């Protein structure tokens, strides 16, 4: 009986890194965010609801995204990905 999923992946990149270039698929969702999102889908399946908030880089790309997933069974998932700093980079799945 799962009720909580937490997943985080953040890394710091210097401004000249490819990840800050929109022409080269920049932003965290293509590289870092795909890991936390795929993990959440693997554990909970397709969520019923997704609420997300992003923060832009100086170049105007998405630099950080926080997401709240809600599933039909009541489970919540809190996911975060960022290019702005190194984060612990882990996941927790909790239930009864």
Which class best fits the helix and strand makeup?
Answer: alpha+beta
SS summary, helix count: 2
Q: Which sequence of strands runs across the widest sheet?
A: 2-3-4-1-5
**Helical amount among residues, as a percent range?**
10-25%
Order of helices and strands: EHHEEEE
Average pLDDT figure: 93
Number of strands: 5
The backbone outline, from C-alpha atoms, is elongated
C-alpha end-to-end distance = 5 Å
For the biggest sheet, the summary is: 5 strands, mixed
Strand content: 35-45%
Stretches where pLDDT is under 50 for at least 5 consecutive residues are none
Radius of gyration: 14 Å
Protein model, in words:
By secondary structure, the protein is an alpha+beta fold. The chain has helices at 28-31, 33-44; strands at 2-10, 49-56, 62-70, 76-82, 91-95. The chain has a five-stranded mixed sheet, with helices on one face. The protein is elongated and about 45 Å long. The mean pLDDT is 93.
Topology of this structure?
Blueprint (H helix, E strand, L loop, with lengths): L1 E9 L17 H4 L1 H12 L4 E8 L5 E9 L5 E7 L8 E5 L1
Parallel strand pairs: 1-4
Antiparallel strand pairs: 1-5, 2-3, 3-4
């Amino acid at each position: 009986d799962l009720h909580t999923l937490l997943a985080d992946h953040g890394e710091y990149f210097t401004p000249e890194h490819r990840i800050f270039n929109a022409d080269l698929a920049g932003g965290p969702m293509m590289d870092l965010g795909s890991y936390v999102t795929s993990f959440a889908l693997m554990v909970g399946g397709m969520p019923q609801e997704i609420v997300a908030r992003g923060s832009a880089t100086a170049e105007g790309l998405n630099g950080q995204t926080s997401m709240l997933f809600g599933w039909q069974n009541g489970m919540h998932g809190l996911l975060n990905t960022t290019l702005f700093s190194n984060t612990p980079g882990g996941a927790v799945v909790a239930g009864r």
